[in-house]
Amino acid sequence: MKAIVHVTLKPGVLDPQGKAIGHALDTLGFSGVGEVRQGKVIEIDLDETDAAKAQATVKSMCEKLLANTVIENYAIRVEA
């Protein structure tokens, strides 16, 4: 199975990298772009056949390592 984890900053947390991306887009002529928030995507191949177990395992990974849950949210998608 494959798990895909999207990690993003929580609302209200400053995102200087997102601001820099937004400024660069404006400089390149892409007008009309509002706020830009930057995140990360993590793909994990798992030796698991049970989707519920895979989801629980990846949730534990996120809570312990992949996301700083004080300032970040995460979403998990498990694919067969």
Quick overview:
With 80 residues, this protein is α+β, with helices and mostly antiparallel strands.
Keywords summarizing the entry:
80 residues; 35% helix; 3-stranded antiparallel β-sheet; alpha+beta
Helices and strands, with pairings:
Blueprint: E1 2-9, H1 16-27, E2 39-45, H2 51-66, E3 72-79
Question: Can you describe this structure?
Answer:
The chain is an alpha+beta fold and 80 residues long. It is 35% helix and 29% strand. A three-stranded antiparallel β-sheet has the order 2-1-3, with helices on one face. The radius of gyration is 16 Å and the shape is elongated. The chain starts with a strand and ends with a strand. The mean pLDDT is 97.
Number of helices: 2
Arithmetic mean pLDDT: 97
Distance separating the two termini: 5 Å
The Rg value, from CA coordinates, equals 16 Å
Shape: elongated
Strand content: 25-35%
Major sheet characteristics: 3 strands, antiparallel
Widest β-sheet, arrangement of strands: 2-1-3
Fraction of helical residues? 25-40%
Low-confidence stretches: none
Q: How many β strands by DSSP?
A: 3
Structural class: alpha+beta
N-to-C series of helices and strands: EHEHE
